[in-house]
Amino acid sequence: MPRFAYTRGMDFLSDTIQSAIFVVLALLPIINPVGNLPILVSLSRGHPDTMRRMATRVAFNAWIILMASMLIGSYVLNLFGISLPIVRLAGGLLVVFAGWGMLHSEEKDAVRDAVAGQADEFSELEVVKRSFFPMSFPLTAGPGAIAASIALGTNSPAASSNFLSGLIVAFLGTAMTAGTIFLCYRYATKLLKRLGEIGTMVMMRVMAFILVCIGLQMMWTGWAELNGIAH
Question: Domain span at residue 91?
């Protein structure tokens, strides 16, 4: 009997770890934290302490959003009668808005200060505001990541076996994802400083354009799903 319990315990642990790793591998390509580095540096103006505080808050916000999406996302959508295509449409619109704002931001504000690191430190309230919108949502834990989290929460074999297993998988998987996000964002300034002012400016503009395209793609995907169009 003890040997049987030990075997079951090891199987439970193995399945849980595998499912948690699968969550990380499924979410990170969608979140793409490396691609968001120029935007984070722009929002923090390259100030080291502001960068650290924003990286911590964004990672924590993303962890909460992703874990909540895995655990209760499907129930919340059903409660309000909202479908995933609508989430993609609305989220895509927010991403387009954020990307458009980055395309038309002032170069002196968004690029030169970001590279030189000469901007004044933001207040705590400003850090909280910028950390949540647009950095946490929709750029990091956006509609794509939320939709994927909801799908993982409802379709994962480990999550569907019992509540405890699903809770552990959601906690570990999203925590490891958030830890990766923190490391990428925490050292964004050092990475981008190696690119120099021109390189950072070019990368920011390219990423802003890609954000607009991603937002439009999200909106098209949502609209296509609503209308049953192959894409």
Answer: 2-227
| pTM, entire model | 0.73
Asked whether residue 4 carries a pLDDT value surpassing 60, the answer given is: no
Q: Structural domain tally of the chain?
A: 1
> CB atoms < 10 A from the CB of 160, how many?
12
Residue 47, both tokens: 């100030």
Write the pLDDT tens digit of every residue in 96-142: 877 787 677 654 444 444 444 444 567 888 899 999 988 999 889 98
Identify whether the C-beta of residue 158 lies closer than 8 Å to the C-beta of residue 166.
yes
